[in-house]
């Protein structure tokens, strides 16, 4: 996954030093980083549409200062990580108003930046966590993204793992998968079917309709629990 980083800094040397620090650590973490540079807050705001994951923002800039830029960012996007750069430590108090993720005091020292970048990477890993589940076939061991699972079906003592790309036949117990996936929004619409609620497009009568337009029958015994799980998932 590519992470978009903006540096908003009017001092060219400070901007280049920060860019070098980011590039020196990017290979140590699991994300790719695209870096965009802006020399003042107005140019940044003219370009900003909520597209950045991380923004390094100088506070003392001409035309519009970094704190005002941060307020405008927060009016558009609450999840962007804002890291202030400043020569004046008391600005840190004002940063609480815009939920600043961290502060870096200029000139930025490598050990302090390393700590900040580690915190950024941990936060992004949590935000973009891609969980997998391991399944064993006769010939190989596969790691499947849980988000890619449509449903798991038991038939004739075999399990069929239906993903958005393929169907994989394995041996196993559906109850075991139900236990593994209990915290990942899966529910039984019928004894043979364990369904990923993320991929349920609609419910029509006795059937749940998946994103790929497959129709799975909802049994009478599972109907109430399945509808309740689906309602909780979509927030009804």
Q: In total, how many beta strands?
A: 15
The CATH superfamily title of the largest domain: Response regulator
Major sheet description: 5 strands, parallel
CATH T-level fold name of the largest domain: Rossmann fold
Quaternary structure annotation: single chain
- Low-confidence parts lasting 5 or more residues at pLDDT below 50? none
Helix content: 25-40%
Q: How many whole angstroms does the radius of gyration measure?
A: 24 Å
Q: Which structural class is indicated by helix and strand composition? A: alpha/beta
**Percent of residues in beta strands:** 25-35%
- Give me the number of helical elements: 7
Mean pLDDT: 89
Widest beta sheet: strand line-up: 2-1-3-4-5
| Overall CATH architecture of the largest domain | 3-Layer(aba) Sandwich
Q: How many separate domains?
A: 2
- Give the ordered list of helices and strands: EHEHEHEHEHEEEEEHEEEEEH
- Top-tier CATH class of the largest domain: Alpha Beta
Global shape: elongated
| Terminal Cα span | 32 Å
